[in-house]
Amino acid sequence: MTAQSIGEKFAAPIPQALGAREFMIERLILRDNTRELLRENGREDEYESDLLELTECACQMDVYDPSKCKCRAREGIFLLAQFYYDTEQYEKAWRWYSKIKDIDLRALYQLATMGFDGVGSKECTPDDAYQMMIEISSKGKDPNCFVVPYAEFHIGKAFFQGFGVAHSEDKAEHWWLLAASGDGHDPVVEAQTALAFFYSRKSSFVYNLSKAWYWHNQAARRGSLESLGAVGAMSLFGVGIPKNINQAIEYLRQASERGNIYAMGLLVYAYYNRKLFTKATDLAKRVAALDNIDELSRVSCCLPQYIRKGIAIAIFILGRCLELGYGIQKDPKQSVLMYKQCFQYDPDACQLLQDYLTHEKI
Hints:
Elements: H1 3-11, H2 25-41, H3 44-54, H4 73-86, H5 90-100, H6 105-117, H7 126-137, H8 148-161, H9 169-181, H10 189-198, H11 209-221, H12 225-237, H13 245-257, H14 261-273, H15 277-288, H16 293-300, H17 304-324, H18 332-345, H19 347-358
Helix pairs in contact: 1-12, 1-19, 3-4, 4-5, 5-6, 6-7, 7-8, 8-9, 9-10, 10-11, 11-12, 12-13, 12-14, 13-14, 14-15, 14-17, 15-17, 17-18, 17-19, 18-19
């Protein structure tokens, strides 16, 4: 098996559900920080009370009409709904967002994402969530139009997954390209990464590694940790671009420093191939100690299967170093345990590395 084919198998696989991660990372960070701060300080009730005061309208209307409200109440309603959303009180969040959804695009977007995530009203169907995103996508001149490209991204996601609409890869690609292009707005990084993986599926008629590299590179430049690891993998194995191990090590090092476990595994592999055995074993031992896949996925926003693959690669290389005494004291028995552990984490990665070993590539 050639390095090219092994590289493609490491770099290309992608699950059918691209929605395995939080797509608005800022919201995830804020949500985590909100919960942690409130629980540490025991001030959740106090914050709720303060926000409820902000929702009181001073416009002296007999019946509150948010479209006519000139005071702070309308923004107070959004902040209160956001507070309930960030503290996972979804029924309350849905109720308060709904009060201003017709005049605040942010509120409508939050309702739509709740529908996509399955935490909205029980009456909200996948079609309802999709229709809300379609409505948002037509509001290019709204003061809160910064959510429009995110709606376009979710619409692409809906078509890819067949969520509320019939599955269509052509339409998924169309909407993701709108979100990723940055035409009249900042590009949505998650759409760029989604496109890169979209073009990486070898069994698909859209398979195009040049496009995959282009979009991973664009997303990596804009901060995508997942794509940064991917460009490192593609550079390491010469997938979609000429092989460049020095460039690969730099990409993988940056991604590793930011917590990409898959990149860490590949960096161990790269160090081993450059005969930097001490660096390889030191990093491999740190990666081998990781075990909470779900938590690592939540924190890094990387797909669980790639985290398992990264750990598996690091463990296999550590096993090889233990077997040969490279960069670490020789221990054949421990080496066998490492190989078995590698297989438990990711049988495919283990088999590929074993094939590589058979062909004396490592």
